[in-house]
Design brief:
Layout (H helix, E strand, L loop, with lengths): L1 E2 L20 H6 L6 E4 L7 E6 L2 E6 L3 H22 L5 E4 L1 H4 L2 H4 L6 E11 L13 E5 L2 H5 L6 H8 L6 H7 L2 E6 L2 E12 L2 E8 L8 H15 L4 E7 L3 H9 L3 E10 L1
Parallel strand pairs: 4-5, 10-11
Antiparallel strand pairs: 1-2, 2-3, 3-4, 5-12, 6-11, 6-12, 7-8, 8-9, 9-10
Length: 266
């Protein structure tokens, strides 16, 4: 597997058609997310990987020679770099061709199989404005929030900001979101991920003591309202199939299931 330059990305783009409900590859191809792309043959690729952070997307031909190339890539690039960096697990999203081979090829460690759901929403044509309970306050994620010395628990927010972006500065330049404050403490956030034109995905969480009050739904509505002001209306919600609260929130908001498939967590 050879690493491609950004000028070569268009050669592999058509291979990712079956994974278009997941925005990470397209954000990488567009130069909006600083990922890496590998292919079996840069000039006429039949197999490719788009990789950023804790997500990798594997598509294309999976004959025996290509499986060996993928195994070499896993050993010589992924395992070596993860060991050096100390980063945690990697989630492998694969097309149907690779689904039967990936656990044998990308090992050790043997990937564990889980089911991932991709929901999508066209947010246009609806009102998303919302009022929060009096003891909570919503703030946009912006430089003034991070500089506000009165705000507590900022790490809860900033750790998520850099999970999909290389820095908080990069997040502020390319993404957007809202956070929920109780008194002066951040107790929830809803952030855009992999922004690409009119599309983004959602990252959302509410701190444990404040769950089961409908606050995630209210935050998501406020986020969607903000997204529309940014020209973003095609919104993805990616979650584990077994995460019933996340599934229920997405469906309550009107997201529709666009894709469900096994993913492999190493």
């Amino acid at each position: 597997m050879k690493e491609l330059t950004p000028a070569q990305y268009d050669s592999v783009r058509p291979l990712f058609t079956s994974l278009t409900h997941y925005l990470t590859p397209e954000a990488i191809f567009a130069g909006l997310t600083p990922g890496r792309v590998f292919a079996d043959a840069p000039n006429a690729p039949q197999t490719a990987v788009a990789w950023y952070g804790h997500r990798a997307f594997v598509v294309g031909r999976a004959d025996e020679p290509t499986q060996q190339q993928m195994a070499d890539w896993w050993r010589d690039v992924v395992l070596l770099e993860r060991a050096k960096s100390g980063l945690g697990g990697l989630v492998l999203h694969v097309d149907t061709t690779w689904a039967q081979y990936i656990t044998a090829v990308c090992t050790p460690p043997t990937p564990q199989v889980y089911t991932r759901r991709a929901y999508r929403l066209d947010a246009r044509g609806a009102s998303w404005a919302v009022d929060f309970p009096a003891d909570f306050r919503l703030r946009s994620v912006a430089a003034d929030l991070l500089a506000d010395e009165r705000v507590q628990n900022k790490a809860y927010l900033t750790e998520e900001m850099v999970s999909e972006r290389p820095s908080t500065e990069d997040f502020l330049a390319k993404s957007f979101g809202v956070c929920l404050l109780h008194e002066q403490e951040i107790v929830g956030w809803c952030l855009s991920e992999y922004n690409c034109g009119p599309r983004c995905e959602i990252g959302i969480a509410v701190a444990e003591p404040f769950r089961r009050r409908g606050l995630a739904t209210l935050m998501a509505r406020a986020f969607i309202d903000q997204a529309l002001t940014q020209g973003v209306y095609d919104i993805g919600w990616i979650c584990w199939a077994g995460n019933r609260p996340s599934v229920a929130t997405a469906e309550k908001l009107g997201f529709t299931l666009a894709d469900e498939r096994d993913v492999f967590v190493a």
